[in-house]
UniProtKB/TrEMBL annotation:
Record's protein name: Feruloyl CoA ortho-hydroxylase 1-like
Assigned protein family: Belongs to the iron/ascorbate-dependent oxidoreductase family.
Keywords: Dioxygenase, Iron, Metal-binding, Oxidoreductase
Residue ranges occupied by any Fe2OG dioxygenase domain in the UniProt entry: 208-310
Pathway: Phenylpropanoid metabolism
Gene name for this UniProt entry: LOC103318655
Cofactor entry: L-ascorbate
Catalytic activity: (E)-feruloyl-CoA + 2-oxoglutarate + O2 = (E)-6-hydroxyferuloyl-CoA + succinate + CO2; (E)-4-coumaroyl-CoA + 2-oxoglutarate + O2 = (E)-2,4-dihydroxycinnamoyl-CoA + succinate + CO2
Domain of life: Eukaryota
Amino acid sequence: MASTMTSPSSIIDFVINKGNGVKGLSDLGLKSLPKQYIQPLEERISTASFGIKNSEESVPIIDMSNWDDPKVAEAICSAAEKWGFFQLVNHGVPIEVLENVEEATHRFFELPAEEKSKNSKEHSCSNNVRFGTSFSPQAEKALEWKDYLSLFYVSEDEASALWPPACKDEVLEYMKNSEILIKRLLDMLMKRLNVKEIDQEKEGLLMGSRRINLNYYPICPNPELTVGVGRHSDVSTLTVLLQDQIGGLYVRGGTDKKSWIHVPPVKGSLVINIGDALQIMSNGRYKSIEHRVAANGSKNRISVPIFVNPRPSDLISPLPEVLASGEKAVYKQVLYSDYVKHFFRKAHDGKSTIEFAKI
Ligand SMILES: COc1cc(/C=C/C(=O)SCCNC(=O)CCNC(=O)[C@H](O)C(C)(C)COP(=O)(O)OP(=O)(O)OC[C@H]2O[C@@H](n3cnc4c(N)ncnc43)[C@H](O)[C@@H]2OP(=O)(O)O)ccc1O
Ligand SMILES: O=C(O)CCC(=O)C(=O)O
Ligand SMILES: [Fe+2]
């Protein structure tokens, strides 16, 4: 089979149309990367500095055991301002729940292509369930080495009826168990912005919709020539990310704000990052930071982000509490679903999505 896949159209047909994904290519044991996946030099990721630790230049690791201690809130808000990324330990989501969702992710991607494809854009019985590959294949000059299952949460009943049986129970448990953590984080972040209380209206604006993605990055023949995920910032309010022990996530940071800093896997931890919606609502105080993922030549990697979002019908803009002191708004009001559509209709391109909302 590998030898018959030489033409560009047969690769696209096999990966995208037939639903084999890049996992299908990886399973064939290809010796070299198909040319559609070769990224321009400036987008490739050097993993040479992978194991080097420099505490001044690493994403903060915050212990949430005493979550109501003001020092914890201070550490979280400072990390959201400076780094836009932090790791949490003792966050309250049980380790078994995290292990179960990791196992369920592997189970889903191990299914035959015909089974996974029932969830593709073309075959899925709902827009809220989508199996796909790369990010936006129609818009991309070079494809990304990643398959994904994206699940938009509407209700437990809908999830039970429509989400794939191979993973739905474990994914729902992870979503349920992370809710308290999400509320605690938003509460701390809002207090620093002078929002005294998160009432129902604010709660809807901050976390009225959630999407969970199961990301699968299979072993890649030439990882140095491609990427798992290209440079982007999330369009969420905040993202709660579970990564396995393989590594490969890099965030923009360091003193020069131009370096790429590796986020080393910490067993049992969750990575939190600020998304564009919160950068906009905080008028730029909290930073939605560019990040990307390297492909791996020897191990299959998974990650499971929960994107905590406004509702699609929400108008987002800098919060009145932030502007109360006379601060000038740097973002205009945008309809959140327009913002997300703008993000999905182009290839990953760093921090450029937020230009859509700049005054
Ligand atoms: C996949 O790799 C990724 C993903 C990410 C994601 C980062 C995030 O921050 S996700 C958080 C997204 N926010 C929400 O989901 C908020 C609520 N949802 C909405 O507002 C809507 O559901 C919608 C996403 C705007 C879709 O609205 P709808 O009216 O149904 O519009 P469509 O025409 O179906 O879609 C528009 C356009 O987007 C593409 N698309 C839709 N959903 C997804 C998805 N889950 N994954 C990928 N692409 C999606 C869809 O194909 C349409 O494009 P066309 O070209 O087909 O017109 C970060 C990094 C990654 O690598
Ligand atoms: O796989 C990862 O570590 C991060 C993935 C990511 O950035 C995303 O899905 O938005
Ligand atoms: Fe991301």
